[in-house]
Amino acid sequence: MEKIFNYINGELVAPENGQYLDNINPSTGKVYSLIPDSDKRDINNAVKSAKKAFPMWSSTSKQERSKILMKLADNIEKHFDKLVIAESKDNGKPESLASKVDIPRAPANIRFFAGAILHDSSNLHEMDGVAINYTLRQPIGVAACISPWNLPLYLLTWKIAPALASGNTVVAKPSEITPMTAYLFSKICIESGLPKGVLNIVHGLGSKVGDPLTTHKDTPIVSFTGGTVTGKHIATVTAPMFKKLSLELGGKNPNIIFADADFDKAVSIASRAAFTNQGQICLCGSRIFIEEKIYNKFRDALIAKASKLIVGDPKDPKTNLGAVVSKDHMNKILSKIDEAKKMGGKILLGGERNLLEGELKEGYYIKPTIIEGLDYNCSINQEEIFGPVVSIIPFKTEEEVINMANSTKYGLSASIFTENVSKAHRVAAKIDSGVIWINTWLLRDLRIPFGGMKSSGLGREGGFKSLDFFTEPKNICVKI
Ligand code: TXE
Fold first, then answer.
1. Topology at the third CATH level for domain 2-249+456-479
2. Which CATH class is domain 254-445?
């Protein structure tokens, strides 16, 4: 059985304790590879190697860093097909999705930041002929980058690319549930000649690997994407150490459909926003608010649209939804559906496991599920489910829908559908979310500040915001 190794000081190495965890293919429910069950010793080795590489890498010219990163991006593309298959097998998502979204975004992330450092500039503040202030932005040291399982290579590269481009060295910890593409990526780093120690990847559990990484005295920057509960824990343990911290957490994102929206477009996008990646994207629109006048018509069209989605073999190009990421996660989603039923929610579509045949018999498939009849304030409409489950809720007025949309503890993203430009801007300004789309969803420009309000996170990443996060500003005042 294939064994995954840690990537420390430029080499693929076994965990110090020699222990491994099972890695399961969610589409079959079968173990197919082994993951290092690393511990503090592996983290110490990785941080030591990153710390040693920092003086060399931070003083390497931006041109040279950019060149090396561009080569990394080219080599990801060289292994494109292999990475698509690996991401799908590890995560359960359709290969067609991995080939359109996950894997193309990895080189795009790296090229974006490799280019950005060459076009960056710093500030100068003049004091009326008395003095000038200029601000240097300098790399900080070893960055701890922790990524989740829903978009494994996409989110790993979204963090390490700006960290490395800005001259930091990195210790990354991918999710133990989806480690494979990070492992393949470490081989690509070796192939690309990335200097030893610049990037280190340690696999294993959050408690045994994530904790010693975030609390290590030599990791002054921590960038984390994952669940809100984990984010809260990381904020608590890193605060007394005054680390620079960026948190991208969960969401319970509203999709607001006004009666004057382009109907077909709104139905189609709302369905995509609810069910893409089996509903396992922090930006998924899991609450659809529909203006009462078109509620019945919209509901029926959404059911018709979603009932055509094919749940099945991730390898089949016709498949729309593959398996959810793990058995535990499948059971959690199914228990939320049961809870919804007990609260009086009406299941309009799906609501159960999708049992397939042959080698997919034990896979973790859930039918796209649409629920109506639940109060906007109940736990199902307040807590993140992170599966192919969407709740539909009618509204009468603009004021009412703004209140309902803002009622959760989250504030990551929102979509508004209307043909009335003034209304679109008015509502967008009042929704408490870091990212708002009008008449679209998941249209990403890598330059924008990306992140959430309230319990959806802390700080923003994206574009020059990421380069700001991974550097320390230093003001220098020169008396004229
Ligand atoms: O996330 P975790 P999980 C949400 C979603 C999901 C829930 C839990 O609601 O159901 O989070 O998912 C590492 N110190 N999102 O359990 O546990 C862990 O090993 C340091 C939303 O996968 O937060 C993994 O690498 N690190 C989300 C990463 O944190 C720790 C995407 C994320 O795991 C740690 C995924 C610790 N103490 C889940 N404990 C999004 N916003 O996109 C765990 N980790």
1. Aldehyde Dehydrogenase; Chain A, domain 1 (3.40.605)
2. alpha beta
